[in-house]
Automatic annotation (TrEMBL):
EC primary class: oxidoreductase
Entry's localization field: Secreted
SMART domains (alphabetical): Molybdop_Fe4S4 (SM00926)
InterPro entries from the UniProt entry: Asp_de-COase-like_dom_sf, MoPterin_dinucl-bd_dom, Mopterin_OxRdtase, Mopterin_OxRdtase_4Fe-4S_dom, MopterinOxRdtase_cofactor_BS, Periplasm_NO3_reductase_lsu, Prok_molybdopt-oxidoreductase, TAT_signal
Lineage: Bacteria, Pseudomonadati, Planctomycetota, Planctomycetia, Planctomycetales
Manner of cofactor binding, per the entry note: Binds 1 molybdenum-bis(molybdopterin guanine dinucleotide) (Mo-bis-MGD) cofactor per subunit. Binds 1 [4Fe-4S] cluster.
UniProt EC number: 1.9.6.1
Gene3D superfamilies named in the record: 2.40.40.20, 3.30.200.210, 3.40.50.740, Dimethylsulfoxide Reductase, domain 2
Species assigned in the record: Fuerstiella marisgermanici
Domain 4Fe-4S Mo/W bis-MGD-type per the UniProt entry, residue ranges: 6-62
Annotated positions binding substrate: F729
Protein name (record): Nitrate reductase
Sites where the protein binds [4Fe-4S] cluster: C13, C16, C20, C48
Post-translational note: Predicted to be exported by the Tat system. The position of the signal peptide cleavage has not been experimentally proven.
Length: 763
């Protein structure tokens, strides 16, 4: 533990999208202690078991410290200099800039993601950049856009302190966002009355703390949302005044499928819901009709404050956009919208899925500040902000994640036009669905080149041609944005090991090498380097040389440049310096009397500075341009794959408390690794007995795409119902994504990891 001479400074936790504030103790150049910040609004001094051990994530024995280049076609690597590594990447890009793709992350800091996307869209005129967040929250984005015309939650964590009812839709916050969940449990332990409802496909630690558990079949959530809307209208308990004042109705446009669908009348909406009686919803979802009526009564009670939370259960779903929009719709229809305590709120899994992916716009169709490449005015705005040649940005959206990897894993002669992918801060060799289609074929494709920047060897580096050692967390400066629109900043506190370098520096160094070679795309309109940074006297500072990287605050320069975009869609950020002083602020942040003020609740009068005076609610980014939100009807549809005689079990994948995502950091923390050493298959006790299986038995799990041998855990951490099984994805030695399906939502392009048909045999 830290001695008396330790230096303490602030940082957000490195792991999940909750964004807990930690105090980091540094002594003799090492992180020696971490504590929850007692003054922090997000976590009030608490951390979960991952957060308490976050400092140890820096000190695994096998940190990557040197650039490594594959020797020929062998499995061997040679250490090379950064100079050579940068040349290798520049060569690949120069050879075919249009065949280069960048695959990033919701763990990129805001400046890192901003630099990567400016490099691609404003520099290479190539939109093939997409983040791993496509796999985790793209359907939340499309749900917000379809409903409000603009992304990200209106509510915030304060709703958890004020709600009377908290509904978790396919969500297990007791393990995935434990500090947030503890805020509600804490209220109950103090004697406050708050009703917790878990709507899920298996019993979890969250279920154990809930008064009600509604066990549904896969895709049951769509039927349940329609069932609630049906009852609100049938019973006359919907909020007529709210709906007439602030809402329109929408349905899918089957003749011209698109995110904004077609307008329908209230009567058409009502008629579409007619079949969704509680009894019919029970047939579709498996949830008893009485429990559907209970939900209808709760939403029909205007005295209650209701908050909904969701995460991967609703997002990793082939109807992901639909169910996201429908949960917003249930809140709008019932008037359970508006502060504090009434909120439909999606959570993110990564520390900057909101900040870097959604706000910076690192998705293949997006530009910073909620803009899109397909819109000529948006492109022109970005070209002006970046001072690049008019027409530089391509109007064609790049490949989304599944398309990008499918193209990369297809031989060039057969149309696989992506030839090189640079991966930063993520592990697609473990997280892509259907790995035998979307990742593993790379092993046999000599014409394809994979570059991976990471801190440890991973399931992705096993197929890399060039491995680059990265700095992480407090080894570099950073700014991130959490699930409640809160932007947080921290400074570098310790040096990275060996030759490990910031991801942002890596991108800038390659950009500058291309500039030196004369590539036009790396110049602005005045012929200067695209990422030029000047000192106080206006003299350029060569930030692409590592020795100079911290002479000026590159993060600050990029952040302040990016900040201009944030004002285009009322997501205003404060200047960098304001975040240095604050423990984070929720956007829009506006200046008043020399102070920077955050916004807790969007679209609500008295809270949101962009709501016109005298209005209670104003959806000022309405896609129908009338300040109204859209309430959607979507019909229930079955999952893309359902169990049958050949593959009789439904497989769901997910996370566990002890490990963060692919475990590449947490499995190197001894305490966490000991607590949860390896993956397992959770089985229902009756299913196990029927197959003569006991705890610890090894089984072969087979899908139409792959096989996995793994140990059985009966009624273990979670308890799946009969006919379903669960396998966590944190273990790189037991890759569950060999089994999963790559079916995607048509609008968000997000895969469904929760519903793959499998069969199980004792080994
Ligand atoms: Fe907080 Fe998430 Fe970190 Fe746990 S992992 S301490 S909940 S930010």
């Amino acid at each position: 533990l830290a001695g008396s001479d330790a230096q303490w400074d602030k940082a957000p936790c490195r792991f999940c999208g909750t964004g807990c504030h930690v105090q980091v103790g540094v002594q003799e150049g090492r992180v020696v202690a971490v504590a929850g910040d007692r003054n922090a609004e997000v976590n009030k001094g608490l951390l979960c078991v991952k957060g308490y051990h976050v400092g140890a994530a820096l000190y695994g024995k096998d940190r990557l410290t040197k650039p490594l280049l594959r020797v020929g076609k062998t499995d061997k690597y040679e250490e090379i200099s950064w100079d050579k590594a940068i040349d290798v990447i520049a060569d690949r890009i120069e050879e075919a800039p249009e065949r280069f793709a960048f695959y990033g992350s919701g763990q990129w800091t805001i400046p890192e993601g901003y630099a990567a996307q400016k490099f691609m869209k404003g520099g290479l005129a190539n939109n093939h950049i997409d983040p791993n967040a496509r796999l985790c929250m793209a359907s939340a984005v499309t749900g917000f856009l379809a409903t409000y015309g603009v992304d990200e939650p209106a509510g915030c964590y304060d709703d958890l302190d004020a709600c009377d009812v908290l509904i978790m839709w396919g969500n297990n916050p007791a393990e995935m966002h434990p500090v947030l969940f503890s805020r509600v449990i804490d209220r109950r332990s103090k004697g406050e009355k708050v009703t917790l409802i878990d709507i899920g496909t298996r019993r979890t630690r969250t279920t154990d703390a809930c008064q009600h558990y509604l066990e549904m079949k896969g895709h049951g959530d769509v039927a349940i949302a329609n069932g609630i809307a049906h009852l609100l209208i049938k019973n006359g308990t919907y909020d007529k005044k709210f709906v007439e004042s602030f809402c329109n109705f929408k349905a899918p446009d089957n003749d011209n499928p698109n995110l904004h669908g077609k307008a329908i009348t209230f009567d058409e909406f009502k008629a579409a819901l007619e079949p969704y009686t509680p009894e019919h919803v029970e047939e579709l979802s498996g949830v008893p009709a009485d429990q559907i009526r209970m939900l209808g009564d709760l939403f029909g009670n205007p005295e209650l404050k209701i908050t909904s939370l969701w995460c991967m259960g609703m997002n990793q779903h082939t109807l992901g956009t639909a169910i996201n929009a429908m949960v917003h719709g249930v809140h709008l229809l019932s008037g359970h919208f508006g502060p504090p305590g009434n909120a439909p709120t999606s959570l993110t899994g990564q520390p900057s899925a909101c900040g870097t992916v959604r706000e910076v716009g690192t998705l293949a169709h997006a530009l910073p500040g909620g803009r899109v490449v397909a819109n000529a005015e948006h492109r022109q705005q970005a070209e002006d902000f970046w001072n690049v040649t008019p027409g530089r940005i391509s109007e064609t959206p790049g490949y989304h994640t599944v398309q990008m990897w499918e193209s990369f894993c297809t031989p060039t002669d057969d149309g696989g036009d992506i030839g090189t992918i640079w991966v930063q801060v993520t592990n697609p060799g473990q997280t892509l669905p259907n790995l035998n289609k979307l990742f593993n074929p790379k092993a046999k494709l000599d014409d394809k080149f994979l570059i991976v920047s990471d801190v440890y060897p991973t399931a992705t580096t096993r197929l890399a041609d060039l491995i680059l050692p990265s700095a992480m967390w407090v080894e570099k400066n950073g700014v991130v944005g959490n699930s409640e629109r809160r932007t947080q900043q921290w400074f570098k506190m310790v040096d990275p090991p060996g030759d490990a370098r910031d991801d942002c520096w890596q991108t800038l160094a390659v950009a500058h090498r291309l500039f030196e070679r004369g590539m036009d795309g790396m110049k602005d309109r005045d012929g200067r380097f695209l990422f030029e940074v000047k000192d106080d006297q206006g003299k350029p500072i060569p930030v692409w040389n590592w020795e100079n990287y911290y002479d000026t605050n590159v993060d600050q320069h990029l952040f302040d440049e990016y900040r201009k975009f944030s004002r285009l869609k009322h997501k205003d950020l404060a200047p960098y310096d304001a975040y240095v002083k604050a423990r984070g602020m929720r956007w829009p942040v506006v200046e008043q009397n020399g102070k920077w003020l955050e916004t807790k609740f969007r679209f609500s009068g008295g809270y949101d500075p962009y709501v016109a005076e005298g209005k209670d609610i104003q959806f000022y980014h309405s896609s129908t341009k009338d300040d109204r939100a859209q309430i959607w009807f979507h019909p229930w549809e079955p999952p893309a794959e359902v169990p049958d005689d050949e593959y009789p079990f439904m497989l769901c994948t997910g996370r566990v408390l002890e490990h963060w995502h692919t475990g590449s950091m947490t499995r190197r923390i001894p305490e966490l690794s000991r607590a949860m050493p390896s993956a397992y298959i959770e089985m229902n006790a009756e299913d196990a007995a029927a197959a003569n299986l006991s705890n610890g038995d090894k089984v072969k799990v087979e899908s139409r795409r792959g096989t996995l041998e793994i140990q059985v855990w009966i009624d273990g951490r979670g308890r799946p119902p009969r006919g379903t099984v669960f396998i966590p994805f944190f273990d790189e030695t037991l890759l569950v994504n060999d089994l999963t399906l790559d079916a995607i939502d048509p609008f968000s392009k997000q895969p469904d990891y929760k519903k793959s048909a499998v069969r199980i045999r004792k080994v």
